[in-house]
Amino acid sequence: MESRWIVLGEDGRHISLTRASVPSDFEVEQAEAALRAQGFSGWLAELKGDYWVSATRPRLAEIRPLAAPLSRFEDAARKFEAIRQRERGSVLSQK
């Protein structure tokens, strides 16, 4: 099963930090500083599963908050899934 570490924003968007390995403290600190500099916050999370496969929904595991998010991880995870479904539908309609 694919595994990657991501930064999950409060709005459900995400960026990948590493694949199949734990990011270094330096990488996490840099990601948190970048979030703060842009006025964002979120969480370091592990994403297990394929983002694009419809048969299984990838699992998100909260690791720790970054830049003091005001919302709940579960709310961001729901937004993440809604974005994933929209993007998958967009890609499938282009085929």
Structural account:
This protein is an alpha+beta fold. It has one domain (3-94). Helices cover 37% and strands 29% of the residues. It has two helices and four strands. It has a four-stranded antiparallel beta sheet. Strand 1 (3-9) and strand 2 (14-19) form a beta hairpin.
Element layout with pairings:
Layout: E1 3-9, E2 14-19, H1 25-37, E3 42-48, E4 59-66, H2 73-94
Antiparallel strand pairs: 1-2, 1-3, 3-4
Compact summary:
With 95 residues, the chain is α+β, with helices and mostly antiparallel strands. The chain has one domain. 37% of the residues lie in helices and 29% in strands.
Descriptive key words:
4 strands; globular; 95 residues; four-stranded antiparallel beta sheet; 2 helices; alpha+beta; 29% strand
Strand content: 25-35%
Q: What's the number of domains?
A: 1
Largest beta-sheet details: 4 strands, antiparallel
Tally of individual helices: 2
How many individual β-strands?
4
Output the structural class.
alpha+beta
One letter per element, helices H and strands E, the order comes to EEHEEH
What percent of the residues sit in helical stretches (DSSP H or I)?
25-40%
**Overall body shape:** globular
Distance between the termini: 25 Å
In the sheet with the most strands, the strands line up as 2-1-3-4
Uncertain runs are none
Mean pLDDT: 91
Oligomer: single chain
Radius of gyration: 13 Å
